[in-house]
Amino acid sequence: MGSLVQRLVALVLLIALLPILLVLAVALAVSQGRPVMFRQLRAGKGTTPFALTKFRSMRDTRDQAGSLLPDADRVTRIGSILRRTRLDELPGIWNVVRGDMSFVGPRPLLPETIRDLGSNGMKRCSVRPGLTGWSQVNGNTLLTLEQKVALDLWYIDNRSWMLDARIVLATFMVMIAGETIRDHKA
User: Distance between alpha carbon 19 and the CA centroid of its chain, in Å?
Assistant: First the structure.
């Protein structure tokens, strides 16, 4: 799907999902306070930085030295549900509308992570990052960074509209059934 078509589809989808987004935002505001959105600088196509937007799923809880506690200690109950179902990613549709992201592609990483990956990081940034991707439907948080990068590079070498459709369908299965490590061969 071309970039302009994706942006238009994303805009229509964002408008259609507005009631759900509002309900989730209110639930987050009530259960964990404000802000309800999380924004973080990520590397996009060509390593161009952009602000990724998603629902906030963690508190900013720190230890006595001022360091953030581990993620597991900061994730809220509603945040855990949003993460498991991937609903925390819905505001990222705005990034698709803006042209920062596609629906399918490697998930955007921090600029310093891309830099540390060297040539693999540069290849990973040769395509627009996605709301969902091959590594997300093949284990995601159950995988190491190296495994995710290998899956992302495989996707880049083998991408097609059929593979993208398969990833979108698999994303819905992950949202319902949860993450499992799957055979990544097409």
Answer: 21
